[in-house]
């Protein structure tokens, strides 16, 4: 299969490199029908270029749907830098990457993702005008994981309303897989709401931070152990593909609602969830808070305004569930249909955003 076949539904895929700094990156622009593409930069030690390409194509596609469903006038894009952020990240590499983003002329705005932080965005911005998620000191929104977690919590409250008749998670057992950037903020919301929280993470310092901040939280040794636990809600908050056939078969949870992107391991998992009576809150619907936060920078950042917009994820999630019930389809398919309808009806007739047009 050729690269063109793999990215057949994408407007543009750029392979970027800078041998002097070691930069190897892929930038994928899925759609600019609603406006310039916005999406984070993931810095990850992919096993192969093929794995990196598959990830960036899936992530950028998800960003188009996320922006559309969130009501933003933005398209979807994403970038991946191939390497270990702990050992390969450097100022020369990030600035070289910034020049590659700048060369796209504003068709793609970058932000933080797994392996990148607001301080990295400040370095990228020294070479590039199309950067969001910058530090507060530089007029940016800072850590976008704050409102990502807040939005996931709102989506979870919407799911609780459908499943149990009310938005409270008090007394419910919520399992959080991954307590890094987003997960540890989500844990705080859940604890404050009275939930019983169980967590796991492969990164020991992340677990220690949660233990220190929330002594009532229970820690288990693996995602497999967490999935097999007695849960009311399962929240995947690490990397994608978390919802496999095996996980769905094992889960006791009534709700799945988490921050991870591309949670469904393959098409058909959404139907398996529905068949087992598990209410799935579509990932790109509930985790849009971070996108809303960094998008707010484009009009001069206000945390209060961004948080108010992110609070709307509760109503958006309820609308997805209502549409799913009326159309007789799983929520994941309902979310896709709603996002596609907005891209189709509101999207520019020319179908592609160009600088200065």
TrEMBL record:
CDD domains: NAD_bind_Leu_Phe_Val_DH
Domain of life: Bacteria
Record keywords: NAD, Oxidoreductase
Aminoacyl-tRNA synthetase in keyword set: no
Signal peptide: none
Domain Glutamate/phenylalanine/leucine/valine/L-tryptophan dehydrogenase C-terminal positions: 142-351
Keyword match Cell cycle: no
One Pfam family it belongs to: ELFV_dehydrog
PANTHER family associated with the record: LEUCINE DEHYDROGENASE, VALINE DEHYDROGENASE
UniProt similarity note: Belongs to the Glu/Leu/Phe/Val dehydrogenases family.
Name of the protein this chain belongs to: Valine dehydrogenase
